[in-house]
Amino acid sequence: METFEYDSHSNHVIFGNDTINQLPRELARQNLKQPLILSTSGRVGLAEKVRGLLDGQVAGVFAGAIMHTPLPVTDKAVEYAQAQEADSVVSIGGGSTVGLGKAISIRLNIPHICIPTTYSGSEMTTHLGETANGKKVVRSDPKILPGTVIYDVMLTNTLSPETSATSGVNAMAHAVEALYAQNANPLTSLMAREAITVLAQALPEIVVNPSSVSARSQALYGAWLSGACLGSGVRMGVHHKLCHTFGGSFNMPHSETHTVVLPHALSYNAGKVPNAMKELAGCLPGSNGDPIGGLNALLTKLKVKRGLRDFGMKASDIDSATDIAINNAYWNPREVEKGPLRELIRRCWAGEEARADF
């Protein structure tokens, strides 16, 4: 066995059906009495549900979380939390809300309890991506990791098939990059393979039968494992660098962007990661030894959009996106070269099927 290093960042995870009802007990366990409830404006109903669950004993509700965690929103939320004398943060929603919770928690040094309603996996990581002046900057600190995560399968039932699909592929992307990370190790690879396998099985079932509790449970389990891979400290590569570029500088939607980029980023790296490609092929149904083909087939089943131009990116943005992405590039198993990278971005923009011919 090769030499490896593994970082363990511990948090408390509660997983099951109707587990949101355990929130009062969890707050009591930590002796927290004034939580600030966070959500997006579209999910304020969930925030109010939490307020009701806590009999109104909250510091307040801030329903202003938005995509890519822009600093002006964070500043406003921090000011509100201080004014209300919040002693903790409870974020309920997807990656945008979790990100805001992380940003408040690390700034005010108060506990953060997450109740994720999507498959983004952000709740299990020590990473925080924040956007300012058209650039998304990611930092990592063990203190960013939420102390408690409450996974309630029933809260994911309202996710549309379309959002479920892209959110699930977003989670899968964490696991795929974990397989070929510079600091990959046996435990994260084990979690990554399990995550990819269950997500590849559950997501097509959800698209066909959105009310399937078993499929929803499997998908949320896979999302937990995927996030835990990143949370253990494995480093991100060209896939995540591109997604941060498209999101922070071109305001592309988060999970949809991960879905577009994943097969192309894998294609870019394919020749340099033969072991990871073999492992991935064993996780994706219908791969027949070719995980790129397996991913293409999966995305076809999920009926997702494949091109960034579908979300408003312009052909004229390709060159500037290339320049931004190549600047301060993340470690990647294949050298990030401008010509091939531009072609990767062009394929993401056009919505072409992935192919390993860079």
List the helices and strands and how they pair.
Layout: E1 12-16, H1 23-29, E2 35-38, H2 44-53, E3 60-62, H3 71-83, E4 88-93, H4 95-108, E5 112-116, E6 127-132, E7 135-140, E8 148-152, H5 161-179, H6 186-208, H7 213-231, H8 238-250, H9 254-269, H10 274-281, H11 291-302, H12 318-326, H13 338-350
Parallel strand pairs: 1-8, 2-3, 2-4, 4-5, 5-8
Antiparallel strand pairs: 6-7
Helix pairs in contact: 3-4, 5-6, 5-7, 5-9, 6-7, 8-9, 9-11, 9-13, 12-13
- Which range does the strand content fall in? 5-15%
- End-to-end distance: 32 Å
Helical coverage, percent range = 40-55%
- Adjacency order of strands in the biggest sheet: 1-8-5-4-2-3
Descriptive account of the structure:
By secondary structure, this protein is of the alpha/beta class. The protein contains 13 helices and eight strands. A six-stranded parallel β-sheet has the order 1-8-5-4-2-3, sandwiched between helices. Strands 6-7 form a two-stranded antiparallel ribbon. A hairpin with a 2-residue loop joins strand 6 and strand 7. It is globular.
